[in-house]
Amino acid sequence: MHALPQLIVSTILLGGIYALIAVGLTLIFGVMRVVNFAHGEFLMLGMYLAFWAFALLRLDPYVTLVLSLPLIFGFGWLSYRMVMRPVIHASHNVQIFTTVGLSIALQNVALVLWSADSQFVRTGYYTVVVRLGTAVLNLAQLIAFAVAVLTTAALFAFMRWSYTGKVMRATAQDRAVASLMGIDTGRVFALTWAVGVTCVGVAGVLLAPIYPVYPTVGLQFVLIAYVAVVLGGLGDMAGALLASLIVAAVEVIGSYVIGTAWKEVLYLLLFIGILVVRPAGLFGQRGAEAIGT
Amino acid sequence: MKGTWPAVVFFSLAAFGPVVVRDAFLLDGLILILLWGATAAAWNVAGGYAGQVSLGHAAFFGLGAYSAALLGTRWGLSPWIGLLVGAVLATAFGFVLGFLSNRLRGPYFVLATIAFSQVLLIVGSRWRGFTAGSEGIPVPFRPGFWTLGIADKRVWVVIVLALAVFLYLIELYLERSRRGYQLAAVREDEDAALSLGVPALRLKVAAIAASAALTAVSGALWAQYVGFVDPFYVFSVDLSIRFALAAILGGIGTPLGPFLGATLITTLETYLRASFGGIGAGLVGIYLIIYGAALVVMMRFAPQGLVPWIGERLRRRPVAGPAS
Question: Out of A66, A126, A248, A286, which residue is the most buried by the measure of CB atoms under 10 Å away?
Answer without folding.
Answer: A248
